[in-house]
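[audit] Reproducing an earlier prediction to check determinism. Same input, same settings, fresh worker. If the tokens differ from the archived copy the diff job will pick it up downstream; this log only records the rerun itself.
[audit] input (243 residues):
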Amino acid sequence: MANNNTIILYDLVLESGCTISPFVWRTKYALKHKGFDLDLVPNGFTGIEELTNGFSDRLPVIVDDGHWVKDSWEIAEYLDEKYPDLPMLFEGESHKILTRFIDDWAWKTAISPWFRCYILDYHDLSMPQDRDYVRTSREQLFLGGEKLENVQAGREERLPLVPPTLEPLRVLLQDTPWLGGETPNYTDYCILAVFLWTASVAKVPPLHDDDPLKDYIDRGFDLYGGLGRHEGMHNLFGLPKAG
């Protein structure tokens, strides 16, 4: 069992101290789902390899009684394999396959367009020492050399295009409180991580006030004593109606 029921989690945070990485968010929820306490080690986008003694250049990373694990998916699998007597994150291989499908859909549907709508906010909210890295890496690796300012420009016209594409999720949640059924599981944490990431950077709301997803998102953010609540988070609801 984890030392004193506590697992160390290396966290990726903004200047406000709010977690930005959706992968870290889902790992936070996975650890709490298992019933562990978190010993958070906050860090920005730079210096990760030094922080983890060369183990990884990306976060999340956990340390469980001296055992290091990286990558959110590998961490989730490790937790179920190491602690099968605690609440399971996955219910078999078919659940893993479906979770990957839903996760991939959510990234293409929401994070990809929202990334371009909030990329300058993403940069400005990062730790001051990280901003040069964020700008250079995002412009070169993800934006084909485009400037952050140019990519984010015109988001007022693009933001209203995203909510309609989330309708399959709304329909699915009409008949169940969670994607996991009566209780949340790792599929929920992957979806909630999309909205948690967005709330960490969205200076302009991406969803309308009357969006039926609000109940699900609010309940998700409130899980585990308000794990998804932080003073650095932004309001997701309040996108102006068209016309």
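[audit] rerun output stored. Observation attached for the diff report: Residues 93-125 form the longest helix (33 residues).
[audit] end
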